TrEMBL record:
Residues 19-208 form the MacB-like periplasmic core domain. InterPro entries: ABC3_permease_C (IPR003838), Lipoprotein-release_system (IPR051447), MacB_PCD (IPR025857). The chain crosses the membrane at residues 239-261, 282-315, 339-362. Keywords: Cell membrane, Membrane, Transmembrane, Transmembrane helix. Belongs to the ABC-4 integral membrane protein family. LolC/E subfamily. Residues 242-366 form the ABC3 transporter permease C-terminal domain. Pfam families: FtsX, MacB_PCD. It comes from Thermus brockianus. The keyword Transmembrane helix applies. It is a multi-pass membrane protein. This is ABC transporter permease.
Amino acid sequence: MRFALFLAWAHLKRRPLQTALALLGVGVGVAVLLAALSLTNGFVSGLVRATLKAYPHLVLFSLGAELPPLPPHPEVEHAAPFAATKALLTRPAEGARGPGVDFATLVGLGEGGEALYPELGLRLEPGGIYLGSALMQSLGAVVGDRIYALSATQERVALRVLGSFRTGNYLLDAGYAFVDLKAVEKLSGLKAQGYQVRLKDPWRAKEVGLALAGTRFFPQAWQDTQRTLLEQLSLQKRVLGILVFLIVAVAALGVANLLVLKVVEKTPEIALLRAMGASRTTVGLVFALEGVFLGAGGVLLGNLLGYLLCLYLALRPLDLPGELYFLTHLPVEMRLSDFLVVSGASLLATFLSSLLPLFRALRVQPGVVLR
């Protein structure tokens, strides 16, 4: 074993440029794969966090004419009755400013509704409205302006702009507004439709919804309303991982090419070693160890480069057009599981690629070569 280690290390040191290029090829492939997965993780998590800033973890729709009381549950942090409707928002021309008009979803919240969205800083009051930042810009409104909401039934309600909110999810920022419950009831003629609920753990929304529903409520977890998007993002991560892994596979083939050239170059040396009593196992072990050294070194280098690249992207996030990608910047989320899976898969790919030169070395016939 020690003799095989000595020879493997000596072979790698003899051609430092080729060895460095092989290590760099594997390292860059691993780093790119880790960065791509971390960016995908960050995109999904960032989108979920941005969405839940202004979207309920759980909605319980009442199945009766009257809104029944909400049963207690240890996972529930806050709950409030709500009603939602679509409306056309208009702002009359004023001074040098022209008129503004846009469609929006008005979410009316009852008592305790502000606590559902603590990051938005809502302070609802009768006749007031909080607009998404993009919606506010579209209307050309400022705090204190009077705007009018027009429903499909031609009901018209005057509202005063109390402020704006920004989640980072462009669809919410451009299409949502919060008002008090009575404003929606007056505009649409609807009573409270149910409860919006904030949970300690948003990912348990389905479980809690089933526990609270009974025969009085129809539960709708945020994962259900966002299911298509979450499934698309999950599929995107898997496809992206496979495509980028091909970079590692190409680098592994580069390692195999390097080892094959070494076998061809060292064929007389291999024959001499065999003639001097070295076993097939020892000879094969030399080239197997070279593949392990190159693979392990490349993976370690790739993990370091990937970590540094992810840190840079976390400190200097990439800006995104929110109207296309929902988020205004691309966050990074590194996961230990991704590093472990990528490292293991890359080591396996490199080791498998070293089998070809290993078998070629084992087939060398010392008698034929020395003759």
